[in-house]
Design a protein that fits this description.
The complex is a heterotetramer of chains A (about 300), B (about 350), C (about 425) and D (about 270).
Chain B (H helix, E strand, L loop, with lengths): L3 E8 L9 E8 L4 E5 L6 H9 L6 E6 L2 E2 L10 E4 L11 H10 L5 H15 L14 H13 L5 E5 L7 H18 L2 E6 L2 H7 L2 E6 L2 E6 L1 H6 L4 H6 L6 E8 L2 E4 L2 E4 L7 E7 L5 E2 L5 E10 L4 E6 L7 E5 L10 E5 L6 E4 L8
Helix pairs in contact in B: 2-3, 2-4, 3-4
Chain C lengths: L5 H17 L6 E6 L5 H17 L4 E6 L2 H13 L6 E4 L4 H5 L17 H6 L1 E2 L2 E2 L1 E3 L2 E9 H6 L12 H13 L18 H21 L7 H15 L12 H9 L6 E5 L2 H5 L14 E4 L12 E6 L2 E4 L6 H9 L4 H11 L17 H11 L3 E4 L2 H4 L2 H15 L6 H14 L1
Parallel strand pairs in C: 1-2, 1-3, 10-12
Antiparallel strand pairs in C: 3-11, 4-5, 6-11, 7-8, 7-9, 7-10
Helix pairs in contact in C: 2-13, 7-9, 8-9, 16-17
Chain D lengths: L1 H32 L3 H6 L11 H9 L2 H32 L5 H10 L6 H14 L5 H24 L4 H9 L4 H12 L1 H16 L3 H6 L8 H8 L7 H31 L5
The chains are: A mainly alpha (about 300), B alpha+beta (about 350), C alpha/beta (about 425), D mainly alpha (about 270).
Chain lengths: ~300, ~350, ~425, ~270
């Protein structure tokens, strides 16, 4: 029983909110503004000069940047569907009352807890041409001619990394979907059974539509995560070969801290453009999810 | 122990709209058990919370022992409150729940311990002092909530529907316990409920509220016998008083095709006629004649519903163990003179 | 309000206190950040130099931290940018941006330059002032497993140089025998994949025109350039390099050459030794490894078949923000004696910018050093690898295209030409 | 009938394959971590013949993992303590009090969850450098606290909002100030949610790399992910030792997970399930 809340008791609210506000303004809001400010300046260690939109003009013609955008967006579009669809399959498998489901659920969730640094090194080994597990398995089943330096060719490097994120995140998505399945009202499924629905029909007509909001949320979550990706690429390929795995994050980092230019203005312009792109994607996706949910209920 | 005085107390929320409470005026005497009764949303809880200091008072004055309390924070009003949800701290033992309010007051440890043990003894909570609230039954939790109030030895106890989360049997016995507790402590208590049985059995006086206003204040039986408005009349009693549209003309009351003599002089025109179901007596030649449309045998009594010709609403009749007439039969009734209440048809106010 | 307010504050204070406790005592300590975490001989040499310096300068200590190169560079770029960093640190002459941004201390005074090779000093000179002490110098060599070579029916040529045509034949022969012909690894380095290409370009164009190519004065569609690239491309198409070359790392490529699985050739800087002469269980070559040293193969119509690249590698510089510049200079100056130069050669088996007498190298590895001298005899040197000359986008493109994609067979000659022309123009 | 058996077999096959895929890499690394590099190179997929647990001691002292581990503990635990206190206070204020701008503040903080880190990392670097907090554990700690603040507020706010208001009213009548009520009632009552965010933040920060690589330079102040990365270049041929290092980073996470798996899953999935 909640009572209508009191008129603002500022004496209590301010001390509670102040520390968070200081953190937020100082270490989140201010850096965002500062980055935008940077983006119209040349920011060298001993010199800062206003350059207007010059960085943005340069950015427009920067092939590597657009390559990075293409890679990142590809990743962010492909990975969510892989993760969520495999996760759905696995969740349904566990939902069908297999033995040891609890242990499997915990085991499958583990990869997501690992640092991308650890994951990156492990998968570099797995993809090693000479003794990596990927090629070892191919050779063992007589497909040795398919063996590849998976992270070393422009055709396979990005897909290989997408496999890594799928490996990492599918278990997470599975756990969420399983929870959503278990939260379904049993009457609905029983009703479907009474209606003599087959397993397939039950799935596509009843269960999936009911957990659709969760599925959409997971897709958005995964999408946003991939738009940020940095560590994995930095550890494994540094964006190579031939920029085929360059992401916006790695390019910003390269331009800010690895290229010998020392200018922080240009990478800030990249970051600013990317910030706008990501936020508009998120806004559109959120709007779509909301609309979808309105249709559902 | 103290008196609590409300003078034209009101509450208006910042958002605008109708005031949640207005013009509430009463005085609770020393040691009195005062009940605020009404349906949900009538403003009784808001009134109580204003007394407690949990809601700011926007109009009027609140005084305890004659001292203005409007601006005094809750902790300094020396009141204790028992919440509907009990509001027990889930992370503390029963003992700590009771001691929590005392610790704040820099009371010596020994005194805290004494008070907690006394309260626990009164309420039979000694075996549970070390338990957490989630390990208690509903009734035990309720007693802890009361105990938390008792240890404080406050001037005024406030109860906000403390029994509504209990099942029916437990509610009856706890009611008795609270009455005994009130006698034992002799404290001033203000008790909010929407349950008329609680109000009738526990209150020295009850205050019935409707739409943020006081409808009637009085001793339970007085209020029952002479409801001041149709609202009070309809709220108290189960089944409630029959309230039927009638007309006064020529010194008589016309109810559909029936005509009754006036119990008192009232102006002519449309009125609402009220008569309690238990006051209707079946007699062969009674003036109220109708057809039985429903029979509800309850064992100790039987409730009949009648349709009177020319009257839209059905009339309820409370009869003895056996029904005086069967379904579809016709029956004639009479009501004693002093059992007929007349209310203004427009305002609902008592005319007689 | 109540003292409870202090809770989050307390946590913060605890952090601050912990950090304060861990802060190093500053006074007379010189901090040194260096590459070569995994290169025992160089580390041992520097540690020896520190011991001697500390003995000669009581009260001054040098705290050295050893990094892997990429980690070092990443740490330095941010630390210097933030106005911090160690007193002395490892740098290579390609890092002109350090000079341009004023991060390095001018070393005109306080260093005994008479004991430094003039060309090595020249490489570190900007605006007439030297900024780095060139410890390491190196040449591009073609290391060879002589046993494998003779198994393939070839002998070491008398002038220690195959032609491209001969190399191609050996590559094909090796492939027939299921031997990987040439080891290389570019997974973590921006330069080793380009050795063969840029040495070919240098020999085909001659020193002057090669220099103009790297300055953007000669276009990459010049017929001589295209011809050189085709020569390398022919090797790539004959599967001269390991299939995993793009992901093989520098350290791994050493092992790939001498131990696992073993290749015929290994184009590498003459600092090959700093890894290969480690004990075998730390990635070094087997004790009885039949190592030979060749010049890079000569292309047809070479303008200068005796041309080769020499580069200054690991050098030490002083942070302009150092709080002990004089102590730091004294530390660097301790390297500039013929004894230290000889000690370097003796330990590391790589050339140095410090003047030293090659004849002073003795001991079990002396033979190696004679082979190196023989391969270098009569060479005309070009100073610096392309990475030390190119900047910005041109450098990034060179790394991605020539160093990695070209030798792993992922781009054609035409694509290299197009990308390099675009990148050089974009500069 | 046969159809049912077949379907069952297909489900089991999917489960077995995915389990191998999900767990295989870890098991492989675990075996490598107990073998020497030459043993590994001879047979990459063999089990250890001798279990070389001494490699852990070697990595711990010889490769600086003791330093990295200590740094990680120091930075992560301090940041988690700060973000828990600061985040809980803010979440409590947002959940409990109605005031103009309440939802705006909440929305601002919440939307930061999706903020790409690139947009802040450069300016954070500049800011910390100016404040003298660059390359310090304090600086990284504060940044970590700020980075995890939105998620913390988000999870805690929804929990605090479910604490019955009666509890606070009771504490008020019991005579406690808003501040004391928060620490003595709201905070302890929210312990389940607090525990969830503490575990979640610990794991996320334990694995954090981007901010660390930009804001920390000195080897003596590196956290574990940086420490591991440091060794993967030139020493990558020493697979045996690197695997040991990887296990040192993995084991604490797996331990926390083994103990608190339900809580952790609950925390990780809190944002996804509505």
């Amino acid at each position: 029983m909640t009572s209508p809340r009191e008129r603002p008791a500022w004496g209590a609210i301010v001390p509670f909110l102040l520390p968070a506000t200081v953190f937020y303004l100082g270490l989140t809001a201010y850096p965002v503004i500062r980055t935008v400010w940077n983006s119209v300046h040349e920011v060298l260690p001993r010199r800062e000069a206003y350059v207007g939109g010059a960085h943005y003009v340069e950015l427009w013609a920067d092939d590597t940047f657009w390559r990075a955008v293409r890679n990142t967006v590809t990743w962010a579009l492909v990975a969510p569907f892989l993760e969520v669809s495999i996760a759905l399959l696995l969740a349904l498998a566990l939902y069908a009352r297999v033995p040891a489901a609890r242990i499997l659920r915990i085991a499958w969730f583990t990869p997501v807890l690992m640092s991308y640094v650890v994951v990156g090194i492990v998968w570099m080994w797995i993809y090693n041409y000479d003794w990596g597990a990927a090629n070892a398995i191919l050779r063992a089943v007589g497909l040795g001619h398919w063996a590849q330096p998976w992270l070393g060719t422009t055709d396979t490097a990005l897909p290989a990394l997408i496999v890594v994120t799928t490996w990492m995140w599918t278990g997470f998505n599975m756990v969420v979907l399983l929870a959503a399945l278990h939260a379904l009202p049993t009457e609905v499924i029983e009703a479907a059974e009474l209606d003599r629905c087959g397993w397939g029909a039950k799935l596509t007509r009843v269960m999936v539509p009911l957990i659709l909001p969760t599925i959409l949320n997971l897709l958005v979550l995964s999408f946003v995560g991939k738009m940020k990706i940095f560590d994995l690429v930095w550890i494994t390929t540094k964006g190579g070969p031939l920029w085929s795995t360059e992401t916006v994050s790695t390019y910003v980092y390269k331009r800010a801290f690895e290229w010998s230019t020392f200018d922080l203005g240009y990478p800030s312009a990249i970051a600013t453009v990317w910030f706008v792109i990501v936020m508009s994607f998120v806004a559109v996706l959120t709007w779509m999810v909301r609309r979808q949910q309105k249709l559902e209920y | 122990m103290a008196t609590v005085t409300l003078d034209r107390l009101g509450k208006r929320y910042a958002g605008g709209g109708a005031p949640a409470v207005q013009d509430v005026t009463f005085e609770v005497a020393h040691g009195e058990f005062f009940v605020l009764l009404g349906p949900s949303g009538c403003g009784k809880s808001t009134t109580l919370r204003m007394i407690a200091g949990l809601e700011a008072i926007t109009e009027g004055t609140l005084a305890i022992d004659g001292k203005r309390m409007n601006e005094v924070p809750a902790r300094d009003r020396d009141i204790a409150m028992v919440f509907q949800s009990y509001a027990l701290y889930p992370h503390m033992s029963v003992y700590d729940n009771m001691a929590f309010g005392l610790r704040r007051r820099a009371m010596p440890k020994a005194e805290i311990d004494r008070r907690v043990r006394v309260a626990a003894a009164i309420l039979g909570l000694e075996p549970f002092l070390g338990r957490r609230p989630h390990a208690l039954s509903g009734g035990q939790r309720q007693r802890v909530a009361v105990g938390r109030a008792i240890v404080r030895d406050p001037k005024v106890f406030l109860f906000d529907e403390p029994l509504s989360n209990l099942d029916a049997a437990l509610r009856a016995s706890t009611r008795q316990e609270l009455i005994r507790l009130h006698r034992r402590l002799g404290a001033t208590m203000i008790y909010v409920t929407h349950d008329q049985v609680e109000a009738m059995t526990m209150g020295d006086r009850i205050c019935i509220m409707d739409h943020g206003r006081v409808a009637q204040i009085g001793a339970p039986l007085d209020v029952y016998r002479r409801p001041a408005t149709t609202f009070v009349a309809g709220f108290l009693g189960s089944p409630p008083m029959n309230l039927l549209p009638a007309t006064v003309a020529d010194g008589r009351v016309r109810l559909g095709e029936a005509t009754l003599t006036l119990p008192a002089r009232v102006p002519e025109g449309p009125v609402t006629l009220g008569v309690r179901p238990e006051d209707l007596v079946p007699v062969p030649e009674g003036p109220l004649r109708g057809e039985v449309v429903a029979v509800e045998p309850l064992g100790a009594e039987t409730i009949l519903s009648l349709r009177l010709p020319g009257v839209e609403r059905e009339l309820m009749l409370r009869a003895g163990r056996s029904a005086p007439a069967g379904l579809g039969e016709r029956i004639a009734l009479v009501a004693p003179h002093d059992a007929i209440h007349l209310f203004d048809a427009a305002t609902g106010c008592r005319l007689t | 309000m109540t003292p409870r307010r202090a809770m989050p504050g307390c946590a913060l204070a605890a952090v601050l206190a912990a950090a304060a406790l861990a802060a190093p005592a500053a006074s007379q300590e010189i901090t040194l950040w260096s590459h070569w975490a995994a290169e025992q001989p160089k580390r041992q040499f520097i540690e020896e130099a520190i011991r001697r310096f500390e003995a000669a300068h009581p009260g001054v200590t040098v705290r050295a931290t050893w990094y892997e190169k990429n980690a070092l560079y990443a740490a330095l770029r941010t630390a210097l940018r933030a106005g911090q960093g160690p007193d002395v640190f490892y740098a290579e002459p390609d890092q002109v941006e350090y000079v341009q941004n004023g991060f390095l201390l001018d070393l005109s005074q306080g260093i005994d330059w008479a004991n430094v090779e003039p060309w090595a000093r020249e490489i570190w000179t900007h605006g007439g002032k030297p900024y780095g002490l060139p410890l390491e110098a190196w040449t591009v060599e073609l290391y060879v497993n002589t046993r494998l070579l003779s198994e393939l029916g070839w002998q070491m040529p008398a002038n220690l140089q195959f032609t491209h045509g001969q190399l191609l034949e050996i590559v094909r022969k090796a492939r027939e025998r299921n031997i990987v012909p040439i080891s290389a690894g570019v997974g973590d380095r921006p330069f080793p994949g380009a050795f063969l290409t840029h040495e070919t370009l240098l020999m085909r164009l001659g020193r002057v025109d090669y220099g103009r190519l790297l300055k953007g004065e000669i276009r990459w569609d010049d017929p001589r350039v295209v011809e050189s690239l085709r020569a390398v491309r022919a090797l790539v198409e004959a599967r001269a390099f390991p299939p995993g070359v793009a992901t093989l790392q520098l350290g791994q490529s050493h092992v790939y050459f001498h131990t696992n699985p073993g290749t015929v050739f290994f184009p590498m800087g003459s600092w090959y030794t700093s890894r290969a002469f480690n004990p075998p269980d730390q990635g070094g070559q087997p004790a009885d490894f039949p190592l030979g040293i060749l010049r890079m193969p000569a292309p047809d119509n070479a303008a200068c078949p005796t041309c080769r690249t020499i580069a200054v590698g690991g050098s030490y510089v002083i942070n302009a923000a150092s709080r002990h510049p004089d102590k730091a200079k004294a530390f660097l100056n301790a390297f500039t004696t013929p004894e230290m130069g000889a000690l370097w050669l003796q330990n590391v088996m790589v050339q140095t910018g410090i003047k030293a007498d090659v004849g002073m190298v003795t001991g079990p590895r002396a033979g190696y050093f004679r082979d190196l001298a023989a391969a270098n005899e009569g060479s005309e040197y070009f100073f610096g690898i392309p990475l030390q000359i190119l900047q910005g986008r041109a450098r990034d493109t060179f790394t991605q295209v020539v160093n990695t994609a070209f030798i792993s067979g992922q781009v054609t000659v035409e694509e290299v030409v197009r990308q390099m022309n675009a990148a050089m123009g974009a500069r | 009938m046969w159809g049912r058996v077949l379907a069952r077999a297909a489900v089991m096959l999917v489960i077995v394959l995915w389990t191998m895929f999900a767990a295989g890499p870890f098991l492989w690394v675990a075996t490598i971590s107990l073998r020497t590099t030459s043993e590994f190179m001879a047979a990459p997929y063999a089990l250890p013949e001798t279990w070389r647990f001494d490699k852990f001691a070697t990595a711990w002292t010889g490769s600086g993992y003791d330093t990295y581990f200590t740094n990680s503990i120091l930075v992560v635990f301090s940041a988690v303590a700060i973000v828990t206190a600061v985040g809980a206070m803010a979440a409590h204020a947002l959940a409990r009090y109605r005031f103009p701008g309440n939802r705006l503040v909440y929305l601002l903080i919440f939307s930061t969850i999706v903020l790409p880190p690139q947009i802040t990392v450069i300016a954070l670097f500049q800011t910390l450098a100016k404040l003298g907090l660059y390359d310090t554990r304090v600086g990284l700690t504060l940044v970590y606290a700020a980075v995890q603040l939105p998620l913390t507020v988000y999870i805690l706010e929804s929990f605090f909002a479910r604490i019955p208001a009666d509890l606070f009213d009771a504490a008020r009548i019991d005579g406690y100030s808003e501040w004391a009520t928060f620490w003595k009632v709201a905070f302890p009552v929210a312990m389940p949610a607090i525990a969830t965010v503490v575990i979640l933040n610990t794991i996320l920060l334990w694995n954090e790399f981007l901010y660390a690589v930009v804001l920390i330079a000195d080897d003596a102040r590196r956290t574990l992910p940086l420490g591991i990365q440091k060794f993967m270049g030139d020493q990558l041929e020493d697979y045996g030792m690197i695997a040991t290092g990887l296990m040192i980073a993995i084991v604490p996470v797996v331990l926390i997970y083994a103990i608190f798996s339900e809580k952790l899953i609950q925390g990780m999935t809190a944002g996804a399930v509505k």
